[in-house]
Amino acid sequence: MVTGNSAPIGVFDSGIGGLTVVHELERQLPHERIIYFGDTARVPYGPKSPATVERYSREISDWLIGEGVKAIVVACNTATAHALPMLREYVPLPVIGVVEPGARAAMRVTRSQVVGVIGTAGTIASGAYVRAIHAIAPSARVVAQACPLFVPLVEEGWLDRDATRLIAKEYLEPLAAAQVDTIVLGCTHYPLLAPLLGEIVRPGVLLIDSAAETAAETSRTLREHGLEAPAPSAPLVHRFVASDAPEHFLRVGQRFLGSAIDRVEKVTLG
Amino acid sequence: MVTGNSAPIGVFDSGIGGLTVVHELERQLPHERIIYFGDTARVPYGPKSPATVERYSREISDWLIGEGVKAIVVACNTATAHALPMLREYVPLPVIGVVEPGARAAMRVTRSQVVGVIGTAGTIASGAYVRAIHAIAPSARVVAQACPLFVPLVEEGWLDRDATRLIAKEYLEPLAAAQVDTIVLGCTHYPLLAPLLGEIVRPGVLLIDSAAETAAETSRTLREHGLEAPAPSAPLVHRFVASDAPEHFLRVGQRFLGSAIDRVEKVTLG
């Protein structure tokens, strides 16, 4: 096991959506090695209860700690919304979530201070984004909308279909009515729907993907803790791990990662 | 623990869909007490691998056996498709699935011997329905179609929406092209979509819900094993158990069961 600065960063998600965060980590932190865990045997987290999502997040963190990671990135909005406070108490390492970075990115670009947030049922019900935005801008108006069908639509690859357009129009209606000028894509699956969502929203509305901001926060956190990796002497090999059979992960994961995945390990938890 | 003929029947599903089978068991077997387990912490099973679905099915069966059931009804098409042969070896009790009853019901009513089967990705990929139908009618033509978005649509209660209609038309297109005269609803969620599907298919096409036939097979199986319950001396109280928080189960479950649920217990597995 490699320890200290050369140890890998642990990244987890309920499934494959968090690979959009891995893509940004690779871009911004090219010296860092990554172990990615996708809980594909228990995906999705969106409709599940806070207690269950906390339990899953703790089990995955235990496993990542056992693999010797130096920090954990919770690359799942639902897990961040329900489990981040618990993980920050429980895990003896820096833990980075996706909600605060997404909120910060949105509040940096909004002109009207009227912003929309879309996410899973669990993320929206938790109120995590509304709290994070109000911590930055107490008078901002936030319109939060659960979009529970988006994850299955993305998982099916229905990224440019009439049915998806119809569903998206219905979900985004309250945001359009409130004339938001910025929408946080509060689920790591949603960046793949950005082209379709961009057609639907009024011109000028900005769609915020928290992946880039999360990678930037990971970079800052590693620097603060003196945990940055030295330039590697050999090409970095990331590890991709799933709790269910790897076929679907391999097939669909590349769409999220933006590059090929050679190999997926299977690890059973719980 | 009650044993012998007065012991309850164990029924399980990945979530709440199997309550459509409980509804039929109540109707056909009014003397039988039921323990229903919905694996809501790990739902859905449809996109998951055979090995994972087998593991979940074994864990639930172990739990039901520990509760003293006298027989197990696998009220989930995906679990039946992937795990029934294993469970019949593993469980020292009668085990009834939903696939053979559904296939039998379809072959009893088809005139053309050209039948459609719709189900989850896992159920369709397993080929279980095609095998079950060909065991009855080797020359029947079977058009099997995975409909992975139907479960999320039903879970969201989108039973009569334009988006659902659009998606259903696309899924059913190959069945219409083959001019099937009968369609097996090969997922316990789908009976709730029957009104919408009935609008889409050609007049005269029959939609087969395996719940009634599964209850009839359960009745036959109990009789064969001399396990029928005597008339109860007090009103029967069924138990409903879920692996995730009960709120969603309570809220949505009644749509499937067709009557009110008073109480849902939570049991964590795995």
Can you offer a commentary on this structure?
2 copies of one chain form a homodimer. In chain A, helix 1 (19-28) packs across helix 11 (246-257), helix 2 packs across helix 3 (77-90) and helix 4 crosses helix 10. Chain A has helices spanning 19-28, 50-66, 77-90, 99-109, 121-126, 128-136, 150-155, 162-177, 194-200, 210-224, 246-257, and strands at 9-13, 34-38, 71-74, 95-96, 114-119, 141-146, 182-186, 206-209, 239-242, 265-266. The first copy, chain A, is of the alpha/beta class. The model of chain A has no long low-confidence stretch (mean pLDDT 95). In chain A, helix 3 (77-90) links the parallel strand 3 and strand 4 (95-96). Chain A is globular, with a radius of gyration of 18 Å. In chain A, the strands form 2 sheets. A 6-stranded parallel beta sheet of chain A has the order 4-3-1-2-9-10, sandwiched between helices. In chain A, strands 6-5-7-8 form a 4-stranded parallel beta sheet, with helices on both faces. Chain A folds into 2 domains: 4-97 and 212-266, 3-Layer(aba) Sandwich (Rossmann fold), CATH 3.40.50; 99-210, 3-Layer(aba) Sandwich (Rossmann fold), CATH 3.40.50.1860. The A-B interface holds A 40-42, 47-49, 51-52, 55, 148-149, 151-153, 155-156, 158, 162-163, 166-167, 170, 243-245, 247-248, 268, 270 and B 40-43, 47-49, 51-52, 55, 148-149, 151-153, 155-156, 158, 162-163, 166-167, 170, 243-245, 247-248, 268, 270.
